[in-house]
Task: inverse folding
């Protein structure tokens, strides 16, 4: 099977856009990712998947913790910065939730401790035990078919 065909098919699945963040002795670090999902309600677990050569991989292994930050439709610039697509002159400031760095203004901030990790293909899958959550009332940033997208505002019929 052709790699491009596979990538195009997987890219057809619309996802939210997240920034995975962690902190080591060298400071806070973040990376844009869409390989995120909830895994369990009891206990509260989430899954992230990082490519085996991602710089973030060693940082999460060192810290043993991470946060998942679901970006709002107004945070496309942060997605591009943390994806390494653009350089930012300004320093990115983090807030903290249960001692983990989080992106201010993200519509969901999910703080996690690493519970387990698995090697599958060319990725490492981390299972995170959720330790805290913070929510904001904003619309999500969406990614599908290689483009950023937004949701139409819901209209309630009267």
Result:
């Amino acid at each position: 099977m052709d790699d491009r065909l596979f990538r195009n098919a997987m890219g057809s699945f619309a996802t939210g856009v997240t920034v995975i963040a962690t902190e080591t002795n060298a400071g806070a670090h973040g990376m844009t990712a869409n390989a995120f999902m909830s895994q369990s309600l009891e206990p509260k677990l989430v899954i992230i998947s990082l490519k085996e050569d991602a710089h973030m991989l060693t940082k999460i292994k060192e810290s043993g913790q991470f946060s998942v930050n679901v970006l709002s439709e107004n945070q496309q610039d942060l997605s591009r910065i943390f994806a390494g697509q653009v350089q930012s002159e300004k320093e990115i400031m983090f807030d903290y939730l249960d001692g983990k760095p989080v992106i201010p203004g993200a519509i969901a901030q999910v703080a996690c401790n690493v519970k387990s990790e698995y090697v599958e293909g060319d990725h490492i899958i981390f299972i995170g035990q959720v330790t805290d959550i913070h929510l904001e009332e904003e619309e999500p940033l969406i990614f599908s078919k290689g483009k950023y997208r937004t949701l139409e505002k819901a209209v309630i019929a009267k």
Summary: Residues 3-150 form a domain with the Pnp Oxidase; Chain A fold (CATH 2.30.110.10). The longest helix spans residues 3-11.
